[in-house]
Amino acid sequence: MTMQITTPAPQAPAVPGRGRFRPLGQNEVRITGGFWGERQAVNGRNTLAHIEARLESEGWLPNFDLAAGDGLPERRRGREFSDSEVYKYLEALAWEIGRTDDPALEERFRAVVARVGRAQEADGYLNTHFGRPGQKPRWSDLEWGHELYCAGHLIQAAVARERTRPGSDDGLLAIARSAADLVCDEFGPGGHVKICGHAEIEVALAELFRLTGERRYIDQARVFVERHGRGTLRDIEWGRKYFQDDIAVRDADVLRGHAVRANYLAAGATDVAVETHDAALLKALRRQWDRTAARRTYITGGQGSHHQDEAFGEDWELPPDRAYSETCAGIGSIMFTWRLLLASGDSRHADLIERTLYNVVATSPAPDGRAFYYANTLHQRVPGTPADAHATSPRASSSLRAPWFEVSCCPPNVARTLASLDAYVATKDDDGVQLLQYAPSIVRTTLSDGRTVAFDVATDYPADGRVTITITEGAGAPWTLSARVPDWADGAVLRVVTADSTQQRQVPSGLVEVRHGFRPGDLVELELPMKPRVSSPDDRIDAIRGCVAIERGPEVLALESVDLEPTASGDIARIAVAPGAVPFERDGRVWIAVVPLGPFDDGWPYTGSRADAPGAASVDVPLVRYHDWAQRGPSTMRVWIPASSDSAPRADAGLPLGDGWT
Amino acid sequence: MTMQITTPAPQAPAVPGRGRFRPLGQNEVRITGGFWGERQAVNGRNTLAHIEARLESEGWLPNFDLAAGDGLPERRRGREFSDSEVYKYLEALAWEIGRTDDPALEERFRAVVARVGRAQEADGYLNTHFGRPGQKPRWSDLEWGHELYCAGHLIQAAVARERTRPGSDDGLLAIARSAADLVCDEFGPGGHVKICGHAEIEVALAELFRLTGERRYIDQARVFVERHGRGTLRDIEWGRKYFQDDIAVRDADVLRGHAVRANYLAAGATDVAVETHDAALLKALRRQWDRTAARRTYITGGQGSHHQDEAFGEDWELPPDRAYSETCAGIGSIMFTWRLLLASGDSRHADLIERTLYNVVATSPAPDGRAFYYANTLHQRVPGTPADAHATSPRASSSLRAPWFEVSCCPPNVARTLASLDAYVATKDDDGVQLLQYAPSIVRTTLSDGRTVAFDVATDYPADGRVTITITEGAGAPWTLSARVPDWADGAVLRVVTADSTQQRQVPSGLVEVRHGFRPGDLVELELPMKPRVSSPDDRIDAIRGCVAIERGPEVLALESVDLEPTASGDIARIAVAPGAVPFERDGRVWIAVVPLGPFDDGWPYTGSRADAPGAASVDVPLVRYHDWAQRGPSTMRVWIPASSDSAPRADAGLPLGDGWT
Description:
The structure is a homodimer.
Chain A: E1 22-23, E2 29-31, H1 34-57, H2 62-68, H3 82-100, H4 103-118, H5 147-164, H6 172-187, H7 201-212, H8 215-227, H9 259-275, H10 279-295, H11 327-344, H12 347-361, E3 379-380, H13 410-419, E4 426-429, E5 432-435, E6 441-446, E7 452-459, E8 466-473, E9 479-485, E10 492-497, E11 502-507, E12 510-516, E13 523-527, E14 533-535, E15 547-552, E16 555-560, E17 575-577, E18 584-586, E19 589-596, E20 619-622, E21 624-625, E22 637-638, E23 641-642
Parallel strand pairs in A: 5-9
Antiparallel strand pairs in A: 1-4, 2-6, 3-22, 4-5, 6-7, 7-8, 8-13, 9-12, 10-11, 10-13, 14-15, 15-16, 15-23, 16-21, 16-22, 17-19, 18-19, 19-20
């Protein structure tokens, strides 16, 4: 086996060989601060060490030492998929090292890789849960065993490492290729006609192909994708849709079953479609994304409304109080959506990514990066109990963030996402650069004519809606700088200030393009309207009929009980938005007028009493950013607030421009 | 051990030693036809044989043969609680034999008892899943093992048998007492300080005490009840409330956790409170019932809104589409509620029992009694797939009735409930008889003065609201005949026709009492208003805000897609009740005017479009009795129907009397 690296690839998690947009990696975009910069700093400073400490204390990393020695299966600890958390941690470390070049992290990375490598068997097999005397045989439990899933995360870690530190001598890529080759041997022609119950190997093999140019990897990824829907896995209580083994990927209309699995598979299938020029498959995936976004996605971008099977519900089944909205499903959605964005150039994909980043990914970790939400409810009916800082939560749906879980997929998934987040900020095509997410950042890349262009982005987004892009390199022929105007940004204004002129115009949502022979010092400024707005749901979403949500920019807001005392009853079950109320900003927060509901009687609850306290005075209450909730002790919370029985309130139709723009 | 039968007890499942009302058993009340008589006949004719065939073919009955021989654990089949289904089947047989005196059933009963008895060990232990070499030790998995639960169902079967065939020589009572004695030895003073993860032993031991007068049984029942809430079981993902081991029974305010377990425990705790004169405990249970009925019960009487843990949700968490509403939870609710009714005489308890019987218990079995609902959703969003008549469903929440389940608690639970249903029709106290449920029936019992009174009940209820009670025995001093006017029956009219006079008056809901020196031929007639009515939910039940349900008498109605073609779009997601619509009856069905919702766009669903097709013509659609849904092939269905954005419709306030009553 020879190492065959094709071209220097962007330091990015997904690097398609073709598509409408090409990603800019960490080597081309760097977030320098702000909302995401702070979270990346906490991730690097606290979360990574927190994860490694837990992997150690829970035994999930020591399992590899036991495998290398003679300690399995007796002394093994953790669930069947615990190896994958080590690999996701390695992937997070790889991105963070790429981002920061931290020598201490480099040392930790190499130490973990060495322990992992010693557990690999001679034929490439690497899993601490299967195959030894006293363990189940290899590949004997594809439904639940997560063997290929674990291999996939190993491969993704190796790809991340090779992209950020090409040719490193740590050995991880060789470990991963050896494992990948075994997978191809075992599941390729003449091998097991099965898939993994948890998709992941598909996206990993596709990326390994992109990294190495080795065709058998994408061929095998395609085999796995095409094998879904043939019922090669056993039926289970929740049906084969749980593993997406109910309908062929190219025949499905919508994501279904386990929400993480569904998104990971869709991401891998998109990679396969792109790399194998399969337009029909790509079309099927776009169709699935459209319907999933329109009918199976929470306002937060979260996905999955079943606790039981961590799964999508049917269309319109989006209960806020039983929202599962697993953090990993949000991350999976970003993976899938990002790949469609690169393939299609459709900025709606970037809209959903932004929504999911601010309202799922940013919601999971505590401010100190040492506790996490696994599930992300949109309605907390009873105050939770604080988690023990040293315990491991048996509950995925904890009502307060927990430091670790018995199933702890989410913390390292958040870590690898935040550490690689720079790569989701901007893309390029033959004609220029697209700025998709707004953060203080620097962008520097080469255009197709070989010219280097660069710009700085200055913004307090999302606290403030102004985004100032200053060209720093790139004199010469015109090129196109595109900037995304989010779908919610009615009335956005674009200003272009060059040496020659200043132009200003209102711009619709989508990608607004500025084509110009930019020179250093030229400015492109975008003013996004950040006035809080009232959002009403499609009437088919039964669970929130008659309710409204308040949003501001990309952030969903919520009513949290700790904000209600002593200004209101404190019982969020008895509050409605006041008739005609319009949200407003004061003291850096968004407020809304509410009225009490009631009085209620406590008898049989279907006797028709409609309870709007007649003539009750309204009171203004502040809202919390959804991602900031549950940081002030146990509380109740709701995103969707009943509208009083008067017609639903609306924000003013005409949104005024910000200061200085009129 | 000597057999000690106290007094000839009513042939009824629960026979408290004291309380406001005393049950009348099968020997005193007999349903002779009508809605429930037909279902009892199907149960006796089809369901019992269906169950025994499945118990045989699934191996759950042969497990006892294996235990008696040498075939365990290798050849054992079924889940850890499969023994209990055999016992529930025996209980159902016992009631059915008591009802019908069928010699073929008697033969089957004795044959099954003999097989069960041979599996019992010398010390009384009887469980095919524990205690042998290669099995877990006895009592080693109280959280999940269901050992005491199985013992409880064995005891309940024996109690049913002894009540219906006192002194029978089949041996079941001795088997059960031996098992019960072992439980008392092992879990009494100095024994294991644990409870069973699934309550049931409590209610069983209480009833065995009532049957035998043996105090240790009620003492042990009390120990188990009091031991709940001390955390003697391990914490699990869903918390100890799953087993009601989170809060002491006397301290709790509401039922919580697994809905069957919660109700079974509450039933047993009520028995303990009654038999040990524990007024504080009884008060706590009544408080729990009140809040559970007001805040955690579906309009069908169904309970349990979580699929994941088959559990109650928080207050007001009652999603119709994710209603679990397990059939067994409905039966458990009837068990608990019936005991409170006997203790308190509060007719609201009989109201809930009626609601649960018509809309949960009657919904589960197919018309032929050979397929069942385990879970009872109130909103089916996509058509289901017909179950294979010979298969065993891995899914509790199947969208169509299934012949059997891997966890098949519900079919035998329905069977024992229907076979013992006569015992829920009427009660007595020192002053007379209370008629609580309306069915064609004969009632004959003795009053405290030793006099025999009897009456016949003639009715087509619930098809028709007239109930005619004809006195057949009971001349002499006045006594009180009470009849329940359901909570929904605004405008009920009572007519009393005696030799001397005819009196007629409108009567409020509750127990209406007629005290008279009745003579044979005297009539008491009740006319219950059966005009369909529109019911609106308490505004705190978020999931059905803005919706209405249509009810008629005790029956909840539903909109089923098979009724919509070709009169409407067929898509129940796009229909609302027309403004001001009033349900009406035509051709034996209830109809309501609906309007289409829409048009909708299929983009991001939180952009505020409110969709009432302006000026759309309404169309009348028929409703189906909820218990009759899904009998015409795969369909979609909803109980709660959006009200159009005009104000919610209401039935006319003044309900006219039926024909002949004005």
